[in-house]
# Entry
Amino acid sequence: MKIIDLRSDTVTLPSNEIRQAIFDAELGDDVFQEDKNVNLLEKQAATLSGKESALLVPSGTMGNLISFLVHCSRGTEAILGNKSHTFIYEAGGISAFGGIHSHQLHNSDDGLINLDHIKQAIRVDNVHFPKTSLISLENTHNMCFGSPISKDYIDQVSNVAKENNLKMHIDGARIFNATTALNITLSSLIENVDSVTFCLSKGLACPIGSVVCGSKDFIESARRMRKALGGGMRQAGIIAAAGLIAINKLETQISEDHDNAQLLADGLNQIDGLDIDKNKVKTNIMYFELKSDTVSSKYLLKEMQNQGILFFEVSPNRYRLVTHYGITQSDIIYTLEAFQKILS
Ligand SMILES: Cc1ncc(COP(=O)(O)O)c(C=O)c1O
# Structure
């Protein structure tokens, strides 16, 4: 039985082409900056992002942590969303390792933070307060229905950051889902931010790795910070060779993932006992609720699992589904039929 794993796009397995590239990769010591594939990936990532420089890191979590550690000195404050991955799911690393105070502001369903709230959150110079150092956004926003955040909004936040002498970071774990949904280039979307982290290992289907992009000075400091955190990876060309295929070839895959997400959301919307706001589905992530008098959450999850379909209950009777590389249109149709059968 095929397993249709809709829990996350982090479960993607590399294609044969990626596996072959890993096998064939010519390697060197990347801490000495002698690995050709890493150097090439970093160069291409810098060009793609419109930034001066880029750095391969082991994970999105480390990419965000390094960015915060470079932008913020100890005891300063970073403004971020209360539903952001960095606040909720990164083990409090920014405070544990950076002594950075997080100032969490409400994320609305579209992943945005009210601009006035951001302005009001910036600290005035007073001995009682930490100094504000950074504003961080997430794009697409995982917990906010995978919403893509527009350039217009990013630029407005960037203006506020610049007016107040603050840095701006984007957790772009799924930034290529945003550029695809918004039909914009990465360099244009993040033109006015200081740094971005994007993941190779989610929609881009690589087994490991993320990339941080920013100015030459920022990346130089990030490189030192990566070493301090134990993220210098030696023959990292086995990761970069996969990453090069991903950033050059997987754009069409992401469009397909979005089309599959639309198909799935449309189908779920027609099933009695399920509640989904399909207008909120803009990329590859969706949330829906179980509203059935006859089928319990436990039964639904178990029966779907028996059909080979996996997904998470994120809170009571509320579930997340994520489309990604390896999930085909016929898998979506099979999934919808399984839901229909169980709920009827
Ligand atoms: C929005 C977002 N940022 C960062 C991360 C962290 O990435 P990693 O799992 O590579 O540490 C994730 C992981 O799912 C994510 O969804």
Q: What stands out?
A: Residues 10, 59-61, 85, 138, 142, 171, 173, 199, 201, 210 surround pyridoxal-5'-phosphate (CB under 6 Å). Residues 68 and 112 are 20 Å apart (CA to CA). The first strand starts at residue 4 and ends at 5.
